Amino acid sequence: MSRVFRSLGLVSALALMAGCVSSGNRHGGLEALPEARLPGPEALTPESAERIAQRYERALAVAQDPALQLDIRWRLADLAMARSEAALARSDSAEPQFDEPIERYRALLSDYREGRWAEDGIEPPASPDHLYYQLAKAYALDGRMEEADRTLVALAEQFPESRYYAEAQFRRAERAFSQGDYAASEALYRELLPDVGAVPEFGQNALYMRAWAQFKQGDYPEALVSFAGVLDHLLLPADDAAQLDRAWAQLSGAQAEVAGDALRAMALSFAYLEGPDSIGELERRIGARPYEHRLYQRLAETYREQERVRDAADTYGRYVAENPDSDLAPGFTLAQIDTYREGRYPTLVRSTQQEFVRRYGLLSAYWFKRGGQPGSLVEESLREFLPVLANFQHARAQRLADQGDGEERTRQAFAHAATWYREFVASFPDDPAVPEQRFLLAEALNAAGQWPEALDHYRRVAFDHQDPEYGREAGYAAVLLADELERRAGLETDQWWARRLEVGQQFADQYADDPRATGVLGHLARGQLERGELNSAAALAQRLLDWQPPASPDEQFSAWLVLGHSQFDLGQFAAAERAYWQVLERWPETDEGSAEMMAGTPSRAEVRERIAASMYQRARQRLDADDVSGAVALLAEIPQTLPNTDVAAQAQFDTAHYLMQLERWPEAQQALETFRAAYPDSPLQAQIPVRLARVYQARENWLAAAAELRRVEQISDDPELQRESLYLAAELYQRAGERSEAIDAFRRYAHNYPQPAADRREAEYQMTELYRQTGEADKRAFWLRRLVDGHQSGDGRSNYLAAFAASELAESSFNAFSQIKLRLPLGPSLERKQAALERALADQEAILDYGVAEFSTRASHRMAAIYHQLGRDLMDSERPEGLGVLELEQYDILLEEQAYPFEEKAIELYEINARRTQRGVYDQWVRESFEALAQILPARYGKEEQVAEVSRGIY
Predict the structure, then answer these.
(1) Cβ atoms < 10 Å from Cβ of 250
(2) Average pLDDT of the residues in 876-881
(3) Which of 218, 227, 784, 954 pairs as cysteine with 262 (C-beta 3.0–4.6 A)?
């Protein structure tokens, strides 16, 4: 501090000396002298100063004017001060050098205090505060600090408005501080604070020293405010960390030292208080400051110097917590990590690294908000931390898995590891370590049960990176995982199967030299077959069969099987047949121990069935091409080549069927009879009788055909087929002349099958015909009555048959009527005749109700004939015996009168029948009606038809 006084004193002395040299008698024209100027330090030499002093001494000795005397004494004091300061500057001696100036200043002040100047009315050359200031300075430079302090107190008390006041107080504060009186020092420094702007050289220092005084008293909260003021004056108006750092860099050496000391003191204060909490408290008092980060940073460094590692790390972390979006936050977190690492806290290092990645990963919101990229330090840190975190978590998850420590907990651990792997590959896609990290990511995801994402990363390692170290295993892992995903999703999920197919084919393409490639292809081929992707399945199977070096026998066996199935379902039956024969040729000697012979592999018998089915389908294709003969040839080959297959039976059956279609009846008969003998247990046996019946009919072997149909009736479970077979058998028996068999079949049909009514009535009709042929009238009449009684209106055929039956039955009553002769006594015979007439007419009238022209004309004719017959019978009846000629004549007249109405009725009915010609009806009974009318009314109806010849001549 003496250096400050020395420099200030030197300046004052030089000013005084310059004034002395240029001044004259104050009242004698001193004001006319040129303005005093300070000479340079080189101008004031000891010799010149001494000579000047001697001149002033001589002047003082002769001066009579008190004012001039005062002026000279004042100048001599300043000159002595200047000489002493110059001598002090030249000498390293610790001996006092300031006795003369002290004595001179004290003498001047003594006169001032005693009021001599006032008594003499003298105006001093300067304010007396200058004398106090110079005296205090001389004491200080002479090492007499207590006297200097008392002088400064007097200056401050007597001249509070003095221009030396600030420095006086500052010197007093320094003195108090150096003596350990920090409270007094603080009070004195505080007085200077309002003058910080006016007297910056003291105010700023006062602010700084006041802070230290508060610090020394342990008043850390107030010291912090004061130190903050120091930093504010040095660094503001910087308003953010970047500007502040630039302002700091521009500080002078001394300023930077002050700022650094202030930070150090503040850090110590925070450490003595509540650490980072105290920083927050300070900000609440004075507001936020752009140098906040330096407070946290210096506090952390202080803790580290004190080996308080946890506190240092917490301080870095506290800054980040309070300023998460700060540009400096990543660096503080890295410092926190380094601190934990120095303190050997691996768990905390790891957790903080995790937090660093979460907060400042390249894909984090932190960088997104900034719209920019982090610096190399952050990127390198991420490159370092991410693999470490991932590997640690992966190893931990594996330990949990090995220990069986809960499936869900283990999955979560693997998922946690995947988080870090994923961050690495997303952040550094071009890094050489990406293939390895992505493979490990896929492994972790797989173990975590996140299979779709795991599959994607396996694929990228294998097929995008094509990494020589991990690609092959990644590809096969992708194949297995895709298979597992498809299995879990089920066959209905096309998405996963498509992924499985793509991955498998990529593996086979990319790693064709891998011995597992053929197994993958075989698996895909079977899978495509299961899903009905037949072309793809066939292509994959063929690719496997073409593989070089050749696939294993089991794999070839499986491929031929897939190829056969695919080609079969594609309708490529010839190719399928060849493939199936290859399957049989490659059939393992035993079915044990072969993966390809496990679930889903058909038996030999099933493969033979497939071959037979292929041949059968080839025949179907020929049928579709209208090559029936070619189809028959193929079908006939199947039972010969593969006789014990189910298809063989069908082929034999179809051979017969298509031979029937070709009307190659003898061959068809042989094929059917062969089938009956060769395949007695076939369900198709039920159809053989019907088909043989058809063949026998074609060959006109009616009796054999009927026998087959009776067999159908007996063995069939189908009531409808039984019914039809019985009816057709009856017809065939009838056709074969087996009348009794036909009667038996028709009778059974009519009794057992009331429906359909039309067929039943036809059977009843056939019974009437058969019994007509056998002459069994009563039995025939029974079936005729069945036809009449079973008739229901609305059915044309039934109506016809009923009319037919009624007509046949009416012949009986008609014949009965015709056979009754009128004999004497006429009454009884006439009565019988009359009754027969009524019955006969009723039967004929019933026929008319059916409205069938064929039988209506007959009925009308029969009714007319009945009346006509009755009239004739009356006229032909026996005459009573004993009648005279006149009586006989009268009797005949009486008979004629009785017969006439019947004849008229007969004519009426005959004419009704004859008029049917007007409606286009002209049959036997209409014709016979005309003939009867011609006999009865020859004049009217007995004329021969005359044909007029027409002349075609031209007149």
Answers:
(1) 10
(2) 76
(3) 227
Nearest to 736 by CA among 705, 765, 690, 764: 705
Sequence-distant (6+) residues with CB within 8 A of 205 are 170
Please report, for residues 841, 854, 920, 924, the alpha-carbon distance to residue 930 in angstroms, rounded to integers and kept in the order given: 20, 16, 15, 10
Q: Where are the domains of the chain?
A: 1-163, 614-801, 802-955
Residue 197 has pLDDT above 60, yes or no: no
SS3 601: coil
Q: Considering only residues 631 and 792, tell me which one the structure prediction assigns the higher pLDDT.
A: 631
Cβ–Cβ < 8 Å for 290, 238: yes
Residue carrying structure tokens 């008609």: 814
**Confidence category of residue 1, pLDDT binned at 50, 70, 90:** very low
Determine the CATH number of domain 614-801.
1.25.40.10
Helices 220-235, 200-216: inter-axial angle, 10-degree rounding: 150
Distance CA 45, CA 48 (A): 5
The CA radius of gyration of the chain, in Å to the nearest whole number, is 72
Residue whose C-alpha is closest to residue 100's, from 73, 127, 129, 128: 73
pLDDT digits (tens, 9 = 90+) for 346-397: 999 999 999 999 999 888 888 888 877 778 889 899 999 999 999 999 999 9
Angle between helices 66-90 and 46-62 (to 10 degrees): 160
- Residues 6+ away with beta carbon under 8 Å from 810: 840, 843, 844, 846, 847, 859, 862
Cis omega (within 30 of 0) for bond into 515? no
Q: Residue 267 corresponds to which amino acid?
A: A
Tell me which residue has tokens 């030292």. 257
Q: Rounded distance, CA 330 to CA 717, Å?
A: 91
Cα separations (Å) of 799 from 345, 782, 791, 846? 115, 18, 7, 12
**For residue 320, what are the contacts with CB-CB under 8 A and spacing of at least 6?**
326, 329, 332, 333, 336, 359
